[in-house]
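Researcher: Last one for today. Full complex below.
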Amino acid sequence: MSKLVLHEYSPSGNCYKIRLTAAHLGIPIERREYDILKGETRTPAFLGGVNANGRIPVLQVGDRFLPESNAACFYLAEGSALIPADAFDRADMLRWMFFEQYNHEPNVATLRFWLAYVGEAQLTDLQKALIPGKIAAGEAAMTLLDEQLGRSPFLVGDAFSLADICLFAYSHVAEAGGFDLGRWPHVQRWIAAIAAMPGHVTIDA
Ligand SMILES: N[C@@H](CCC(=O)N[C@@H](CS)C(=O)NCC(=O)O)C(=O)O
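Model: Here's the assembly. Have a good evening.
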């Protein structure tokens, strides 16, 4: 495999997903830190050379750059047990990863970032106005997760997959965004099970 470099902001759950995937697979990754609060992913050098979309994470594979956290996890896990062999289960795993990006991350992760990293006093009026909707949508996403995890130990049946890694990343730190994990007992059980797995690394490792 070509040399791997993760362009990241280490508190980000999107970046953590990639480190967690790599840790489970025993893949070494070099890390390069950017302070997104200082606009370090918006410089001409970053936009021109790393990601024209101005965001981390970006997984650099040799001299090629792969933005989007879930795509990077998928690249690392190709051919491993983190991706189900069965075609339906594999598509179902992707279903949860798309759900994560559309319903979960824009609410659960954004509230954590706004409240725990930017700070409520620093938010724009527009951001403040968006908070109630994000709370409701984040709670709905966590409830859906909880219902699924009440039916099976992991999101896609009995086997731990990328779907679990990608949804674990922001679910386990959801309280920093104001969500009460006590409302979702199946999610809590799943978080504890993942945190106890061999190969696990924490978000601040
Ligand atoms: N869909 C993208 C989201 C990437 C994203 O929103 N990154 C944030 C940090 S988690 C970022 O780089 N923000 C800095 C900025 O927008 O300037 C992914 O999953 O990788």
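Residues 9, 12, 14, 36, 41-42, 54-57, 68-70, 101 surround glutathione (CB under 6 Å). The chain has a mean pLDDT of 98.
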